């Protein structure tokens, strides 16, 4: 059985932004999830990294940082333990250029079917046992 290579970086597109998500940590042990592109207005400024969490959850509500040490699904965590979060996700990408092209597209929808294959590819690459990126089981039907 071939060992899966650990995913270290990918991109999430929301209706206004592109985020680069990495499992690399800052001085506060927070995974670096940074806004790298903005179209229109957003509560999180361009270039800012999300704060306040040790895990990155991919949920129906967006990408969240959160703290949980019991291995629970991110959507089942008390929101008091959530740090920053993005708006809902349009698509996930392994390639930065594709993510930026997606953001430039018209009529972006949450979980946009035009990029479903890219999103599935990222979720598959994350897998079920990633130490930093956690895909909500409740989000899986939405993304698939």
Q: Can you put this structure into words, describing what you see?
A:
The protein has a 4-stranded antiparallel beta sheet with strand order 3-2-1-7. A 4-stranded mixed beta sheet has the order 6-5-4-8, with no helix packed on it. The longest helix is centred in the C-terminal third of the chain and has 11 residues, at 116-126. The chain has helices spanning 96-103, 116-126, 140-143, and strands at 9-14, 17-25, 31-38, 55-59, 62-66, 82-85, 89-93, 133-135. It is α+β, with helices and mostly antiparallel strands and 144 residues long. Helix content is 16%, strand content 31%. The protein has one domain (9-143). A hairpin with a 2-residue loop joins strand 4 (55-59) and strand 5. The radius of gyration is 14 Å and the shape is globular. It starts with 8 loop residues before the first strand and ends with a helix. The protein contains 3 helices and 8 strands; from the N terminus they run E-E-E-E-E-E-E-H-H-E-H.
List keywords for this structure.
144 residues; alpha+beta; four-stranded antiparallel sheet; four-stranded mixed sheet; 3 helices
List the helices and strands and how they pair.
Blueprint: E1 9-14, E2 17-25, E3 31-38, E4 55-59, E5 62-66, E6 82-85, E7 89-93, H1 96-103, H2 116-126, E8 133-135, H3 140-143
Parallel strand pairs: 4-8
Antiparallel strand pairs: 1-2, 1-7, 2-3, 4-5, 5-6
């Amino acid at each position: 059985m071939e060992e899966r290579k650990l995913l270290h970086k990918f991109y999430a597109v929301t209706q206004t932004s592109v985020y680069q998500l990495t499992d690399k940590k800052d001085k506060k042990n927070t995974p670096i999830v940074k806004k790298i592109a903005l179209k229109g207005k957003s509560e999180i400024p361009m270039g800012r990294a999300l704060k306040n969490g040790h895990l990155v959850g991919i949920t129906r509500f967006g990408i969240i940082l959160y703290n949980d040490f019991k291995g629970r699904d991110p959507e089942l965590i008390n929101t008091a333990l959530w740090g920053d979060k993005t708006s809902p996700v349009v698509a996930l990408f392994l390639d930065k250029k594709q993510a930026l092209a997606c953001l430039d597209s018209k009529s972006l929808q949450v979980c946009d079917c035009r990029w479903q294959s890219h999103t599935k590819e990222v979720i598959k690459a994350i897998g079920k046992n990633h130490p930093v990126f956690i895909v909500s089981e409740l989000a899986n039907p939405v993304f698939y």
